[in-house]
Amino acid sequence: MLSLISRFNGLNLSYHRAITCHRISSSPQSRRITLEDKIGIRPKPKRPMSAFLKFSSNIVRPNLIKDNPSLPITQVTKIAAERWKSVDDDTKKKLAKEYQDEMVGYRAAMVEYLKELSTVDSKLLEKHDPKLRKEKLALKKKRFELGCPKRPLTAYLSYLQTRRSEQGNVPYKDWVSKMAEVWKNLDASEKAKYVQRYEHDKAAFVQQMAAWEKKMRDSGNAHLLNTGTQQNAASGGIGGSKSIKPKSSGSTKDS
Questions:
Q1: Domain layout of the chain by residue ranges
Q2: Would you say the pTM of this structure is higher than 0.85?
Q3: Does domain 8-145 correspond to CATH entry 1.10.30.10?
Q4: Which residue intervals make up region (Disordered) (predicted)?
């Protein structure tokens, strides 16, 4: 997963949320209801606190609340922010290093978490979690920028592409339905050309993907591999995408 480090101008809101969540979860009678609880799937790994939040929650807040139990959260936040300004660089670097190390473990845990989710649960979580959706889009963009190989079109989709100019004003859904029938009844020798091209492109894709994944691991970008593995690269699916392994030549889709 890509790390989205908190900006200082958003610390007040984040700290307010952290304190609120702590107060709710610390009650023996109640526990914070997470998004995963609401949609009925197991909880995600807990994201580590940033350097400032760790300083606020573990160092500043306990002493303030101990001496002033009724101190408003807004006041706690202001005091923590002021004290953070005077923290020495060594302490800040130490807390920042702890955060970075914890983020490495968090990213790895998130990859495993997403791997183990069913397709339905994964889509459900992404639908209800804008932050996760944003992170996945950022991950996809970064993979593209670093030259992630693109999966080849299936035999059917490649054929469809060659006929695209014939669509005219026909609604796409109707046109695709018509092309599916055309593909189904296409001469076997004609269809074989597209299938063979797809098999050739897929073999090249598997090799390119293996080389790219090795490059990412060697350059310290293993987290960009997300749920993509050599196994689903061989079957055509990368990052949890639908497999592109072709079906029989009589199928309208080869995915």
A1: 8-145, 155-234
A2: no
A3: yes
A4: 221-255
The four Cα atoms 89, 90, 95, 101 give a dihedral, to 10 degrees, of 120
What are all long-range contacts of 106-112, with beta carbons under 8 Å and residues at least 24 apart?
A: 106/1, 106/45, 106/46, 106/47, 106/48, 107/1, 107/2, 107/3, 107/223, 108/223, 109/45, 110/1, 110/44, 110/45, 111/1, 111/223, 111/225, 111/226, 111/227
Of 77, 69, 64, the C-alpha closest to 15 is: 77
Share of the chain above pLDDT 70, in %: 69
pLDDT tens digits, one per residue of 106-161: 888 877 877 777 666 777 777 777 777 777 777 788 888 889 999 999 999 999 99
**pLDDT higher for 134 or 195?**
195
What amino acid is encoded at 232 in this protein?
Answer: N
Burial (CB < 10 A; 0-12, 13-18, 19+), residue 109, is: middle
Higher pLDDT, 3 or 96: 96
Distances (CA, A) of 17 to 20, 73, 165, 192: 5, 10, 54, 59
In the chain the first and final C-alpha atoms are separated, in Å, by: 27
- Three-state DSSP at 198 gives helix
Nearest Cα residue to 213 out of 124, 149, 126: 149
Phi-psi region of 68 (alpha: psi -120 to 50; beta: other; left: phi over 0): beta
The pLDDT of 10-24, averaged and rounded, is 41
Q: Which three-class secondary structure state does DSSP give residue 236?
A: coil
